[in-house]
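Bump. Still looking for DUF4190 domain-containing protein structure tokens.
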Amino acid sequence: MTGHPVPPPTDDQRRPPKRVEMVPGTPFGVVHLDVAPVTSGLAIGALVAGVASVLVSLLVICFGVSFKDDGGAWASGAFAVLGVLAGVAAIVTGLLGQRQIRRPVTPPAVRFTGRGLAVAGISCGVAGGVLSLLGLGLALLLTLA
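Sorry for the wait, here they are.
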């Protein structure tokens, strides 16, 4: 396999070693590097699911109001189920993401960040679920009135 050689890291990319332990009886040492924190995938997933839940709840409201005489309550009901499920998924993944972020780790392990993303995902999930249910109630009220 022919390829181009990988260039050495720049000064900004280099991370100083956390500590160096010499191996007794040899000229070698073990270098312990500081591991950069990683954004939690669960927190990102919670935010995505929460925003999706809010967007679907807007569909629930729009279908319920716009098509109140043409079966809009049925469409609102179908989308309300989707909105509530997305909201519950956002809440669950957000709580799991917060748990992952809070977990204490020893220095060589990867630390996770993204607590704000997890909280935003939980908030959007709750708002999307509540708006979906309120939109469904509004659609039923307009249909029956």
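The chain has a mean pLDDT of 89.

Edit: fixed formatting.
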